[in-house]
Amino acid sequence: MDNFQIETAQNVSIQQNASGIGERILAYLIDLLIIIAYFIVILFIIGVLDIDMGDQWAFWLILSLPSFLYFLMWETFWDGKTPGKATMKLKVVRLDGSRPAFSNYLIRWLLRLLDISLAFGGIAVVAILLNGRGQRLGDMAAGTTVISERQRVRFNQTILVDIPDDYVAVYPQVTVFSDEEMRKIKTIYTEARRHADHNIILELSKKVSSLMDVVPQEKPLQFVDRVIADYNYYTQKL
Length: 238
What we know:
By secondary structure, this protein is mainly α. It has helices at residues 21-49, 57-68, 70-77, 83-87, 102-110, 112-118, 122-131, 137-142, 179-194, 198-212, 220-237, and strands at 4-7, 13-16, 90-94, 144-148. It has 2 domains: 4-148, no CATH class; 155-237, no CATH class. It starts with a strand and ends with a helix.
């Protein structure tokens, strides 16, 4: 499932990492197994204690309440998660990324009967695939979605760059940086190049050369590019 962006009332862009349909199905199956296990345990206890349930439908109704309210209670009291969602690192949030209110959880739970229970999940799957925001009908009505909390790092967000086998490094001083610091340097550099912001590249070059205590042999653009490549060489090739 692709990421999607929401513009809040304060004109702040929120990038949501929508969960994939496969992840949601697996999370649901885990929760379903837990519910089934609950009933197996209940039946086992009744059998061991030799309890004659007979026509005590009210007692059966009470025993069924935990499974009936399973999704509503877990999501309400565990920050939008069920055991299945937590296992798959998923959670329910509002479209702006904030925590849903009880009314939001209630609406999506009530509509679960339509798009999951009665249709065996078929309506939910179609809605999620077509919606683009990871929403089934219950989510659309409640203004919620299910996001993945897994970190999906793109290549350009890492410190990695391709360097040839015969690459010759120039600045051994790059080892003063940590991986996290170099990742930030590369991110700033990449964004500045994308927007042709030479002032940022110039300031970045000055800051990096100062921390390395070197006098650049290249222009700012080439210097920062060389520093990133040298860091890869000294931390991965040696």
